[in-house]
């Protein structure tokens, strides 16, 4: 993405066709994950026509993509620049200016406290006119909304590069588990799975562990000739996504019968199910009798069902054993659209509309 | 340490008293660990008076300390600068110039392959006159030599911020285990122990794990009010040493009866013993009957016996069960002196002296 100076990024607003967008309003939804940031622009529908009553796919006017906007990973100035640029690009593509925006909801990874929310709200307030409603959430909340069409109820489980479980009770109480990064033990994440696989390769090589198919598979994928070279490989670039990209090798080895790879996936399933159970338990999503129904929204590359060793399915089986009322949901829209639906719901709620129906 | 320009660092050599050190020779030993780099300057003793026959403490002429010189951690230019500066400072303090140096041995963490050795040898060759003998080893080799007074035989176990096990057979064969950094699973290190403790605190907080004394102990030590703040704390500064500094809290909680802290230490003991056993096994240090005698040199803060929950002692007990001939050694000199003794031994060997007696 181009680098702009001092507000130059918004210059398209002065150049826009005076006829474009006049009288219409839009909402923005943003999903800022560990790897990329996506912003969508959607038309503001009246409260009488909620988005989930639309017959077909949702009307996305424009979509823009940028890099990581997690301030923990890239630092505050870079996170702020990325957010501003991806928002400007989505608006510019849609042909609307900032004055047409009624509400914007950002779901950003790394938002873990009111302080984190306040910081981003301050950045946004500098950018947007005062009438624009601003909402900032953890990116898991946008992912939940992408599966529930904007309703904040149930639990989402994300496992991509990182992992997190996040839930809302009907009364608005919220809870989360995991989502704390590799240092603090997110072992169900893509990073966690791949790091365990790399560890198994090193242990097989230095005599601490049994031989495993992972050695040939991973060395071949990385173009390395010996496990000794893994040390240099891991330190030359500490990005979590680069390590998480090895998950398909672990799944393939497990499918081919490798016991070490299989155990790594079984452990990851247990960790992921545990994080969902902790949230369900704290919010009592299953009701007092334990059989209540609630959605479990499944998001992220690790949980996608494209292999015969299906991590997401195993996690769901593990959850269903304890909570038979859990209803697995695979979202039909992306988290950025979930964030836009949240913005609409929050806006309708503030205006006294029936946003949660 | 001051920053010098273009060789200015060596200006002290032109200013030295012409009488100082004339006719004498010195050797240099350097220990470059994950946290700091230490260089010592010692007089060159004749081969007829090996250092380990000296009655009292070894004659260290000068000692200099600098920061981390692991190129994996700080990058090549910074690692090179640190090495050059700490060597110059040790020489400057001793009153000798580079022309008086006969041999220098560097034990540097992050030296994991011939390529790593060659890189550092190239840097040193730029600095030192051609007659100076240069040796580059992993820092674990210098630590082993510090316990064996320069003889390369047996196994060293280091657990400080990082951990590694490194051994030599009498015939010169060498082997190592672990020492690969946190990503690749050095769970017996100070970093590994502390990261497990932080994970336990987060799991207790979000409902995934049992309550533990570690929560109050660690939050109090870090001046934080909630486990939620640990996420920001870990990402604000990714240095391993900062996390490893929490090991005393884990030991205190284990001593006070906390089961979670106890299990973390038991797991670390098992990992550390496993890394020693892998090296002993590969080198057959225990001889063919399994009862042969060999030194196990124990180095690093995690293995120091200053608590009633004594990690080092537990590791040794675990090793002795399998290899009764293992002889635990706590070095009386620091690894930098071990590196200097190695330099002397290598030099005597090249000159046909009896360096390994």
TrEMBL record, chains A, B:
It comes from the Eukaryota. Pfam families: BcrAD_BadFG (PF01869). SUPFAM superfamilies: Actin-like ATPase domain (SSF53067). Residues 28-343 form the ATPase BadF/BadG/BcrA/BcrD type domain. One of its GO terms (molecular function) is N-acetylglucosamine kinase activity. Its EC number is 2.7.1.59. It is an enzyme of class 2 (transferase). Belongs to the eukaryotic-type N-acetylglucosamine kinase family. This is N-acetyl-D-glucosamine kinase. It comes from Liquidambar formosana (Formosan gum).
């Amino acid at each position: 993405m181009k680098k702009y100076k001092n507000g130059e990024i918004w210059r398209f607003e002065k150049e826009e066709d005076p006829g474009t967008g006049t009288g219409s309003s839009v909402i923005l939804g943003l999903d800022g994950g560990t790897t990329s940031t996506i912003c969508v622009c959607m038309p503001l529908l009246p409260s009488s026509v909620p988005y989930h009553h639309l017959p077909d796919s949702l009307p996305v006017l424009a979509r823009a993509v940028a890099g990581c906007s997690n301030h923990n990973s890239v630092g505050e100035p870079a996170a702020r620049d990325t957010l501003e640029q991806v928002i400007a690009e989505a608006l510019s593509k849609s042909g609307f200016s900032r004055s047409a925006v009624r509400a914007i909801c950002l779901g950003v990874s790394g938002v873990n406290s009111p302080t984190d929310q306040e910081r981003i709200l301050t950045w946004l307030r500098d950018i947007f006119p005062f009438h624009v409603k601003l909402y900032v959430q953890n990116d898991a909340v946008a992912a939940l909304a992408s599966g529930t069409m904007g309703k904040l109820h149930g639990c989402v489980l994300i496992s991509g590069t990182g992992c997190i479980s996040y839930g809302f009770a009907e009364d608005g109480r919220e809870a989360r588990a995991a989502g704390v990064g590799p240092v603090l033990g997110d072992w169900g994440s893509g990073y966690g799975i791949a790091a365990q696989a790399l560890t198994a390769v090193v242990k097989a090589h230095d005599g601490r562990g049994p031989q495993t198919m992972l050695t040939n598979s991973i060395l071949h994928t990385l173009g390395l000739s010996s496990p000794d070279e893994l040390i240099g490989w891991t330190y030359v670039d500490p990005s979590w996504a680069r390590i998480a990209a090895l998950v398909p090798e672990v799944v393939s080895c497990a499918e081919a019968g490798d016991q070490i790879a299989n155990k790594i996936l079984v452990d990851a399933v247990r960790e992921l199910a545990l994080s969902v159970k902790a949230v369900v338990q704290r919010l009592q999503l299953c009701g007092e009798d334990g059989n209540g129904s609630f959605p479990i929204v499944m998001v992220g590359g690790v949980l996608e069902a494209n292999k015969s060793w299906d991590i997401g399915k195993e996690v769901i089986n593990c959850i269903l054993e304890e909570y038979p009322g859990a209803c697995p949901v695979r979202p039909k829209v992306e988290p950025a659209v979930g964030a836009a639906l949240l913005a609409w719901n929050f806006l309708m709620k503030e205006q006294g509309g029936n946003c949660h129906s």
